[in-house]
């Protein structure tokens, strides 16, 4: 039996609904969810003693179930004479105080201020099928009538899919009238999340429009979004920002539905934000392993990446995450990275915070009530201690942080916040400092205080670095490359002139300075802030064999190449990266390997340099 209209315009037709209810008979038709799915939001915004008008009631059981739990002052209207007759017959003896009237909601016959609540489940969506002038005029009449029959302080509670044109119309109309506007996302139950055929890819929302007494002049416009039934509403600055926030939740719901229906969608990642501040709190990557043979216990798992280790290949790169998922042996693995600047009390609190949200990303076919395992490295969430944050006019915001590696040693890192997943510079901290940090962390655990405050490391900033250790693999390769100059056994006794372009934390020139006693190093750094960072936080210092020039590396080499008595270096090292990700080449920037520039580089090298 085909009950769907030929076009969406028929949703606004009396004839369509008469035919619909004749064909459907007495079986209830529930737009956007049953009473059990909506009762949380309904009970929050409707009091049992209030007088309620249900517009476009259809043959939904919603009014009946509200009546049965104590909401007995309910009037229902609909344009279909067929359905009104059905509902009267169904409720005459069992629910005598509830009335059903055939009435056009654009021309209601009630006196002004007759109701405290107008309840609309899908009716606005059915009427507002397009943005043609005739449709908009009909909706204007409907919403004007809603405003007329409501008392001051009353609420229009509209259950909707919040399509962009519907949200725009409803929010625009009532905010201009000086009403308070709140959009409340209806929470999905665990059963809905795991049901075989989800009814909607879009989430269901409730618009709660509260009527205020008219004021002269421009009234304060109030826009709020409530993401969960028990959540605290968030005040937003404009109707546009409210629409954007709703759209974000719709996109997330669509993504969840796609992940549920299909495996192997490719690289999928999303941020979960702090509800109070809006700042990212977790970054999730969804990794499917289609080759894993399904069993009852290997459908789904969550992997918490220890703080500070999200830049490692295994966690930070797509291929690494695929390898991690395959070795873990789950059909779907979600890796979770923890953001700097956020407080985390431990694995248990993270699990409690994420459990409901990550279930929305579960694959199809997962048994109900299955306990989803939370995995990590050694069951720990790691340690990240932010030592310093600042802003560089050239490099932007940056952070100095100490993180614990997998061997429990601590490492100091420089990270530019414009590229949070790339460690700009890294140095290992001395063992005694790592030991003190671990003791401090154990002490904090006993006090139940999160150990991620700067005072956790009492050592002086620049004196705690192990200058004998190179963290970066490319630095080790560059040092090994010195063996190409001459007999390695003679290197330590041979005077060497080196030019290092790019200072960062200074680990590379420091290592050369300390391990090659006859070396003389010139370092070029474009950003003066980085010289301060290297000196204060990474133990860098200049000497008679170590000089830093604040200049653009390209300009510095070009000027040297143009001098008549040009210097000659045994080694020139490029340790610079590009701030522009669109270039497709990050280290070094393409200009450093242009043929003309490399000829200038050659001109300031010794014959065997």
UniProtKB/TrEMBL annotation:
Biased amino acid composition, Basic residues: 436-449
Keywords tagged on the record: Methyltransferase, Multifunctional enzyme, Transferase
Any GO CC annotation of this UniProt entry: cytoplasm
InterPro entries membership: Lys/N-term_MeTrsfase_sf (IPR051419), Methyltransf_25 (IPR041698), SAM-dependent_MTases_sf (IPR029063)
Gene3D superfamilies tied to this protein: Vaccinia Virus protein VP39
Gene Ontology molecular function, alphabetical: methyltransferase activity
GO biological process, one term: methylation
Domain Methyltransferase: 52-147
Residues forming coiled coils: none
Residue ranges of the region described as Disordered: 433-463
Family, similarity comment: Belongs to the methyltransferase superfamily.
Subunit (UniProt): Forms a tripartite complex containing GAB1, METTL13 and SPRY2. Within the complex interacts with GAB1 and SPRY2.
Function: Dual methyltransferase that catalyzes methylation of elongation factor 1-alpha (EEF1A1 and EEF1A2) at two different positions, and is therefore involved in the regulation of mRNA translation. Via its C-terminus, methylates EEF1A1 and EEF1A2 at the N-terminal residue 'Gly-2'. Via its N-terminus dimethylates EEF1A1 and EEF1A2 at residue 'Lys-55'. Has no activity towards core histones H2A, H2B, H3 and H4.
UniProt-recorded name of the protein: eEF1A lysine and N-terminal methyltransferase
Organism: Cervus elaphus hippelaphus
